Recover the amino acids of this structure.
């Protein structure tokens, strides 16, 4: 066959293998930071290796009836703000949070994490910042980052665009797994404060910004006099994993936490209802905590109905626990010592599996338990 002067390469199609190799080299230090004694060193491996139990006798933690718990989630359109602002480290924390906060609802201990980055073209420095954020999230969650995938897809993503998703795996002793049938009338609903919008509702957030011509680089005094709008909106999702795991381990026999919910898309009512059996209701008092300024800012600028705000956003409560009444105060105080702001936001009553929202709300700041 005659020599072809128009030879094609993978790089011509938009995929740079050398840049991918450089990105892999850069992220290794961040990945190794998350590894503990359960991770088995596997240089050049095509998959991560992880022990379910330590093999060191001194630290051995055996499960009698272990159940693996797995979930996957992404950051959603918040990455579009990240691209616009050039802020790529915090969305890695978001990615871990959206997964492990779901995982712990089942009573599980997070074990390992995998990430997926789909991108127009690999920029090693950007990939490093993304994975650095993922690694930081894994440290906060107490799990190991054991692998991931970066897919260079110039025909799918526009220049500068990417998507970020993750997969988490945990374990729970079967007898300790959450079971909605344990929830009973009289149980107390505790709400843990969020750190802001977290990672849900950003399609609406971006529409408000566009329609009202808001500037991400501007400081709005009625929002936050010390941070720009972009900085407020890029605040990463709070990770509750280690605090919740420790709170559960405080009671080795008694099952004082009867249900939990991660407050994401669908809002407080839409997620808490998933933790209720069909013979009880959860009565929620919206005056029990102060709605953060970011939500009122978005509501007023976007002219969004209160019901729609509650359905889309967490409105200041990022995680809920349903606790036996005799242990509610002790559990709240324990979580507060671990850095959480906790409010008693409701009670469980006889009912039909619904969340009943008391209409009265005020703007007063209540004292956390």
């Amino acid at each position: 066959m005659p020599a072809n002067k128009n030879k094609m390469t993978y790089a011509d199609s938009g995929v740079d293998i050398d840049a991918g190799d450089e990105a892999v080299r850069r992220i290794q230090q961040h990945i190794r930071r998350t590894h503990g004694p359960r991770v088995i060193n596997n240089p050049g491996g095509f998959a991560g290796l992880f022990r379910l139990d330590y093999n060191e006798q001194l630290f051995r933690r055996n499960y009698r009836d272990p159940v693996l718990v797995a979930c996957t989630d992404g950051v959603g359109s918040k990455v579009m703000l990240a691209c616009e602002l050039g802020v790529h480290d915090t969305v890695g924390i978001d990615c871990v949070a959206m997964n492990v906060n779901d995982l712990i609802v089942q009573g599980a201990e997070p074990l390992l994490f995998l990430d997926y980055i789909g991108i127009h073209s690999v920029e090693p420095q950007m990939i490093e910042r993304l994975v650095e954020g993922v690694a930081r999230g894994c440290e906060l969650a107490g799990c190991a980052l054991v692998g991931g995938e970066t897919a260079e897809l110039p025909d799918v993503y526009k220049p500068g665009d990417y998507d970020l998703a993750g997969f988490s795996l945990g374990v729970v002793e079967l007898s300790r797994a959450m079971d909605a049938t344990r929830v009973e009338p009289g149980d107390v609903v505790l709400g843990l404060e969020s750190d802001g919008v977290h990672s849900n509702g950003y399609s609406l957030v971006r529409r408000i910004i566009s329609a009202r011509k808001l500037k991400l680089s501007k400081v709005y005094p009625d929002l936050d006099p010390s941070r720009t709008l972009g900085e407020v909106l890029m605040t990463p999702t709070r990770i509750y994993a280690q605090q919740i795991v420790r709170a559960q381990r405080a009671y080795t026999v008694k099952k004082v936490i009867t249900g939990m919910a991660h407050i994401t898309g669908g809002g407080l009512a839409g997620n808490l209802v998933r933790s209720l059996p069909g013979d009880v209701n959860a009565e929620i008092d919206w005056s029990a905590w102060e709605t953060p300024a970011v939500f009122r800012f978005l509501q007023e600028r976007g002219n969004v109905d209160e019901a729609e705000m509650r359905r889309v956003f967490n409105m200041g409560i990022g995680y809920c626990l349903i606790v036996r009444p005799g242990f509610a105060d002790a559990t709240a105080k324990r979580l507060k010592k671990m850095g959480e702001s906790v409010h008693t936001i409701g009670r469980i009553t006889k009912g039909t599996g619904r969340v009943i929202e008391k209409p009265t709300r005020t703007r007063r700041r209540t004292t956390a338990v």
